[in-house]
Structures are given as C-alpha cells and as structure tokens.
Amino acid sequence: MRPSLVIVGAGPRGTGVLERIAANAPELYAGSGLDVHLVDPHPPGAGRIWRADQSPLLWMNSHAEDVTMFTDDTVDMAGPVRPGPTLHEWAGIDGRTFADRRLQGDYLRWVHERALAELPPGVTVHHHQHRALRVTGPREGRQQVWLDGHEQPLTADLVVLALGHLDAEPDDEQRALTAYARTHGLVHLPPHFTADTDLDVLPAGRPVLVRGFGLAFVDLMVLLTEGRGGRYDGDTYLPSGREPVLYVGSRRGVPYHAKLGYDLSGERPPLPRFLGPAQTAELLARPGGFDFRRDVWPLVAKELGFAHYHRLFTAHPERTALPRPDFEQRYAAARDDADLAALVAAAVPDPRDRLDLAALDRPLDGARYDSPEALQEALCAYIDADLARRGDPAYSQDLAVFLALLSVYGQLVRLGDLGPWWHGFFSHLASGPPAPRLRQMRALSRAGLLRFVGADMTVTAADGVFRAHSPTVPGHTVEARALVEARLPEPTVGRARDPLLRRLHADGAAETPHGLLRTDPADGRVLDADGRPHPRRFALGPCTDARTPGAFTRPRTGGAAFRQNDATARAALTFLRSLTVRAAA
C-alpha cells in the first residue's frame, strides 16, 4: 500500500507545506510513491479568503513587493531554498501597489500549480473539494479523515492540519446581543469575515454602531460606501445615498497606523540585539516558566527602542545630542525604565523623535473631550498626523521599529501562545491599512458618514435599542438599531465551528490558556494534555500557539511561517520514508 499524507486546508498555508514537500522530497523521500490528499471545499491555492468570487474593492493589506510565497537565504531552516517571484514580480505591477485580493488569489493558484509541477515522479496529489469532519485512528496506526458527503474516510499515514482562519461560535455576550436583537427587531452582526457577511441588512441613512477599528472595519467601510455606489473625487466622497452612518469605536478608539510609504535606505539596524535565539532559549529553559509582562515585554521594548534609536543616530544625527557609541553603551547598560527615560531625554531633544510605546498603544488614554464634535476634530487631526508621519522618510526610525517588530515576532513565535494583547499591539503598529484607506476615512468624516465614538467603547442593550458609550466623551451616548462587531472571530479551539478541530479537542488535543491548539515548536506535531506530541498529526496556522504575523511573509525577513512549513514537511517526509523502509525489510 502506498504511503498517504492528508493536508486539510489547501489555502496559502497548505500550499506552503506542499511547496516544502516538493523542495525536500529529493533529499528525504526516495520511496516507491506517495499519495497526497488536499482536502478543502474552496479552490486550492487561494482558499476561502483569497477566492475569486469577492468584491474587487477589497485590497490586500501589504504592498505587492512585500508579499511572497517563496523562501530565501534569510529563513532559518534545514531544507533547500527555492526562490520565486513576489506578487509584484509575478503580476508585473508596481511594487508599491496594494493589489486587490482576487489578484492575490491568482498568484496563489499559480504558486500551487508550480508546487505540483515540482513534485518528484511518484508523488500524486488528489484534491477533495469537501469539508473534513474529523480525524480518527490510534496514535501508532494509520489515521482516518472523514469528509462530509462520504461514507468512507480517507486513510492516511500522516495528517497535516492547515486550517487557516475559522468561524467561531459566539461567546455569552454575543449570544445575548443576538437574542436581544431578534426580540426587538434590531440588527446584530457578530464577529465574522466581512467579505462573507450579509451587509444588506444595514439600512441606508441610519446609524450603525461598529465595535472594532482594525482591518475588518476597513473592509466594512469600503463595502458600505464604494460597495453601495459612492465614489471618491480626490479627497471628497460623493455619496450614492445608500450608505448608513457608521459610529465606530474600539479599545484604542483610533484606526491602526497606516502602512509606511517609503523604503529604508542606508544602514539597517543590526537585529536581533536584545531579543534573539539566546534570549528565547533562556526563557524556554526557565524551570518556573516565564511571564510575558515581567520577563518578555522588557526585552521586546528594549529591542524596539534599540532599532528606533540606532536609525535615528545613523540617519538623522543632527537631531541627537550624544555620540552614538556613548548612547548605545548606556542604552545597553540601562537597568530599568527610569534609566532609559533619563538617557533618552538627554540624548534626543525633540519628543517627536522619542519612542513612546505606551502612547503608541493607547493614544487616547486620559484624553477627554467636551463634545462628539471635539472628538471628531481631534481624531481627524490624529489621522492627518499619522498619514503625514508615515509617509515622511525624515521619521525613518518608524520603519526601523517595523523591522524590529518583525524580528521580535520571529522570536516570540518560538515561545508559544503569549495571549491576544501582543498580537493586537503588533497589528496596530505594523499591520495597519494602506494610507489611502485612512484618507478615505477623512473624506467620509467630512461627508458625515463616519463618526468616532472613542476609546474603551462599551455597548449596552436596553429600551429596544443599542447604545454606545466611551469615557473619551463623558456622558455622551449614541443610539442605533444596528450593531456590527468589526473583528475576526477569536481562533480558539473550544469555540471553533470547524467540526474537525472541535473533535480533535474533545479527543484530547491540548489547548493553551488562551484557547489555541498546542503544538510542538520543533515540527508542529499536535500535543496532548501531557505534552506528548502525536506521532501522526501536525497543525499549523492561526488556530495554533505557533501563529505567525500577517497573512504572508515579507521577503528577506526570516519568514517564521516558512521555517515552520519546512520543519513540518521534513518531519513528515522522514516519517513516511521510515514506513517504506520498514515495508521493504
């Protein structure tokens, strides 16, 4: 019987695993053949998120030159580098373009076809356009992958779960809001993928409360404005008359920072410096474990600060007051926040050149406004300032911090699940929308279609309506008959709607305190409650404790996802080779 591998999920992550199987098979697999089964109800390569049948108004969130599916020599992996084109090279478009998601889907389909073509003879791929329902089988024996609509399962020697982003059951608050809306004839849209949400239920000209100011909100904004026939004439929005009025707030109360609008020239900060492999190994080796805020965050903050000030001193020395070697020596020796603050105050005269991570994380903390109009004016000024700074290479230390964030994330992914705060902080600072989207927010504000609620927005349901409150404007309340939760479902094992993942959890797969699937950091094998890796089951992606930043990898940044894909592919091929050796003996 030919060895068999099942990959559940044929989107970007499943395609990445397939590419690494093709790259490593010549070295590791010289068996008599192999059947690879790809299981996904959506098209291979593009998957659900990047499928062709979605609005062309929805963009990627990265420049085309910053999107690649191919490894390079910066990736710390055992397998061979197989270079390939970035999205902009493949599509022949300007590297600074924010391509629409359908074009990215075309690129992913091409990558998938190339991976198929590069598989060695004897490896056959079968695509099953169905949903996987569960995985059964003994730890030491062949596995069965059950598909919807099929009475007989696929039989596999190994199973790799590359499930991508999943729907989730609502939590208690969301269930209560949905029930209230049903009782009172209101509209409540819980966390979901915006492109898959029925937005026709939101009436034109009426107020809609929106909780969430990240990328899901940007999609919502686009589909409810241009998607309803409005258009932009320069910085002016020309309504169609079919738009609702969006009242948006969130924990921070501000949109994510805009994408940086320039490239780094000159010397790059030498990273990692304060948080590298040695530090992560030391954290993992601590007998009592580690605490993120106490043990990890100080290293993160020092790494980000080092990149910021290294760039400031090298690229903009006229705005500094100490020789760089003196500053860096004292920076490395600083024992606490007070030491660092005193050093920075002496070395960097202009506060705009200092790195204030707390202010970046919560820019409205302590801010109070007398009226909604005052908040509207302040938030518009905040967006204008963000757009100006993020497009100005005179503040290129911001780009250095971005590079440090990527470096840091590549290390932190080795530590497992660090909780939602870190991922949210990273996304706010490093994974914001294209600058044109923030300019559109300003135009919609001027048109009266986008209103800001403030930070720490709360929603109550009473008297037949939804009400939004924020301490940013004390005493002010916004009422509406519609509420949209503009955020993705939490990728937790316990509430995932995916039946396979829920069954896996019920059968003993371990989860982290924050609800993610626990995996072996060495190769992605699924762990049980005792920490034992399952010999025949692997998992990769956002539902695991090894989730990586962003949907795609930026070229020449180490690519943690590439490293994981390679490790899983090599472990799988090594295991399958051992089966063929035993069978031949």
UniProtKB/TrEMBL annotation:
It comes from the Bacteria. Residues 511-537 are annotated as: Disordered. Residues 6-165 form the FAD-dependent urate hydroxylase HpyO/Asp monooxygenase CreE-like FAD/NAD(P)-binding domain. Residues 520-533 have a biased composition (Basic and acidic residues). This is FAD/NAD(P)-binding protein. It comes from Streptomyces thermocoprophilus.
